[in-house]
Amino acid sequence: MPAAVLFLFYILVVCTPLALATVQGQPPRGVWDELAAGAGMAGLAILLVEFVLSGRFRSISGNIGMDITMRLHQLLARSAAVLIVLHPFLYRGQQSLDPRQSPPGSGALDFGFDGLWLGIIAWLLLGALMVMAIGRDALYRHEHWRLTHGVMALIVAALGVLHATRAGQYSREPVLTWVWGSLLGIAVLSLLWVYVIKPIWKRAHLWQVSRVRKLADRTWELRLVPEGHDGLRYAPGHFAWISIGRSAFSLNENPFSIASAPGDGSELRFVIKELGDFTNHIGEVATGTRAYVDAPFGALTLKGHESAAGLCLIAGGVGIAPTLSHLRALNAAEDPRPRLLIYGNRHTGQIVHGDELSQMARDTPLTLVHVLSDPPDGWTGETGFVRRDLLERYIDENARQAWVFILCGPPPMLHMVETALLEMGVPARHILSEQFSYD
After folding, report:
1. Spatial separation of the C-alpha atoms in residues 188 and 261, rounded to whole Å
2. Are residues 382 and 240 in the same domain?
3. Is residue 123 a contact partner of residue 178, using CB atoms and an 8 Å limit?
4. Is residue 439 part of a domain?
5. Which domain does 104 fall in, by range?
6. I want to staple 210 with a disulfide (CB 3.0 to 4.6 A). Which of 66, 203, 225, 250 is the partner?
7. What angle do CA 194, 199, 200 make, to 5 degrees?
8. What's the DSSP call for residue 273?
9. Taking the model in full, what pTM does it have?
């Protein structure tokens, strides 16, 4: 589904409660009361739709990228929180603490316990949820935070729906009550899909570690083979969530780009750097260890760019993994299009598959450019970082307009390179990048 269609669909869903409230024909109230009700309904709608922006639905993240999906999730969650937190303070109309003195429809709120106080509890829990999300890196292991975050968000959403349908003037109407119930049902199904249905599917599609070997400084290659099934259908540029030596229901998963090409057979290859937690012990994983794979994800594929005149691949560190997948697939297909690989590292000991890349440069239409920030004595290649002046030397005017540019590496490098390419006149639609850090 194209990104524009996804955006329009999102706006339609979020605005539906407001539109239904508008056409009810309720007696008009003061401006502040209407703003308060609108803010509450908009915030609740955004919160409910957040469950499908978790990053685990390929129809979404596969079109706009996992990093953009998660950034949207964060930004929209903050917007929902602001609307929900503010909305009770916006009411200005006459209210009565005695429901018998405020017939349905005569006031902005029903102060009965089963309506108003559900909202107060949801309001307080939402504040706690946002504080926990902001401090997640310092307070929790990711897998513990992930489960707590999902369950708390669902509780807040359920209480919010009950509050809206019992206390709100508009949401008590049957049609809007049905809409809130449907959105809550979708939220519940989203969590069930991620935490129950997918793990059951993964148990029926086991993988096994076939090889672990060191490639470079603190960098390893992990290979997985399917156990009792045909493997995975994916495209170059996709990545997978992997859990090794744990239950299919374990929340301890890590995202890694696939380095193999679809034509290499059923075996999956990954390039993994020691960065903490599981990755620090990747070299200790024994052959035969069972693994679970949730894939494919990502938007670094050539979908929509199949007719590009050439490819410029810019990688930093283990960002070489999806680049390798693209190059291996192009070579297997004997694709005649020119390609340029600019590969940045700190020193030569970090270069991954250097011999294979050099062989590609000799045998295929690949121009290989190594860039080292800490080069050894006698180094004659590029030094420093991937800067604009370096890009201008290797990318001519025709390539800037007709090629597709695939970027993968540390976030600072991605930001710098993308800015440089845009300043050089490369159309934004020709630049593909994705990262696993969303802050």
Report:
1. 36
2. no
3. no
4. no
5. 3-194
6. 225
7. 120
8. E
9. 0.87
